[in-house]
Amino acid sequence: MSILVTGGAGFIGANFVLDWLAQDDESVINLDKLTYAGNLDNLASLQGDSRHIFVRGDIGDTALVDRLLAERRPRVVINFAAESHVDRSIHGPGDFIQTNIVGTFHLLGSVRAYWEALKGEAKECFRFLHVSTDEVYGSLTKDAPAFSETNRYEPNSPYSASKAASDHLVRAYHHTYGLPVLTTNCSNNYGPYHFPEKLIPLCILNALAGKPLPLYGDGRQVRDWLYVKDHCSAIRLVLGKGLVGETYNIGGWNEKANLDVVQTLCDILDELRPRSDGKRYADQITFVKDRLGHDRRYAIDASKLERELGWKPQETFETGIRKTVAWYLDNQSWVANITSGAYRNWIDKQYGTRAR
Ligand code: NAD
Ligand code: DAU
Q1: Residue 33 CB–ligand 1 contact under 6 Å
Q2: pLDDT tens, 165-199?
């Protein structure tokens, strides 16, 4: 038995693959294009582990995906692959349309053909789990209730619009063709292997490098933060117990303003790695021009997942963020490879001249 994971060299996908193989002997076929966000260093601990089969490729490459499905015969497909950074989607939406919408469309086509040809229990038990985001619901006012699964889709950025479109395609493939799908919509993740373009890892690394900690606008935008391992455990649960065709919101009940998040990071760093000049890391906070169309507040109501499937996050924000800061302090070679771009050199060497 095996599972097929797409985007498993990225932040959440890699955490998912590592956690899966730490708990289970079922093999993982990991299909990842290795864009700038895909990093095989994240999976270094799996080197030589025959349960992990890495394939470099695009979810939109129908011939490749068809072949993988036919040869490997996974019992589920979990789709993490996406362009994921809102700021990049503002500067250049094209890749987001291509991967998140067109890529998901092609992937669904391949998976549908594979599933339709399955027989008996294999067909009955097959699942396609699509990993999505709370950003599809748009922005909340200060006192509005948290997003539930029945909230209207109101995406505001090219990123969230492309994810919303992919969610709709997944839904349509269930409604029209009966494909057994599950969709999860999660809030902001943080934890190990987070690419330092996103707020938390960016601020940890900038703080240590003596650089400014850039907060957009007034720094009072609110996000709900979930430790990445808790997101992975929720996905496992939905995969095992979720009802076909349903969507499940995943969140940590941890609404925080960006300024408070960064202040907390600074306080932990002051304690664990004080600045050599005796000053405080918070002195490095700077307010910069706001993100275009910046959503003010996200909040997730995860009660359906808790009530129906019995999920509970293990980490509070306080425990998770402390682990995260410690992880970055303890993994300086990972950090150095990412910041220097050395991990890209390795990818070019490994794959640059190889035919598929
Ligand atoms: P990431 O950017 O760190 O990783 C994305 C991975 O997908 C990379 O390894 C990349 O190489 C791969 N990829 C990109 N395009 C591909 C393609 N066409 N074919 C194959 N692989 C491709 O993203 P992440 O933060 O790990 O997010 C994973 C998923 O979870 C995304 O779908 C994202 O929308 C969703 N999500 C993320 C968060 C979050 O806070 N990061 C929260 C909720 C949902
Ligand atoms: O809500 C889930 C989403 O969370 C995921 O779907 C996305 O893939 C993921 O990237 C994340 O999106 P955000 O835009 O919320 O994450 P980011 O870390 O980029 O920003 C978090 C908040 O911090 C947001 O309000 C913007 C702000 N910010 C971000 C950066 C990079 C800053 O103030 N300064 C910064 O330099």
Answers
A1: yes
A2: 999 999 999 999 999 999 999 999 999 999 999 99
Domain spans of the chain, in order of start: 2-194+225-254+297-315
Q: How far is the CA of 198 from the centre of ligand 2 (A)?
A: 6
Domain 2-194+225-254+297-315 has CATH 3.40.50.720: yes
Ligand 2 center to 282 CA (angstroms): 19
Distance CA 248, CA 234 (A): 9
The bridge status of strand 255-257 relative to strand 222-227 is antiparallel
Q: What angle do CA 255, 260, 264 make, to 5 degrees?
A: 110
Contact between residue 190 and residue 282 where contact means Cβ atoms under 8 Å apart: no
| Atom 10 of ligand 2, nearest CA residue | 85
Q: Which atom of ligand 2 is nearest to the CA of 133?
A: 6
Distance CA 76, CA 240 (A): 10
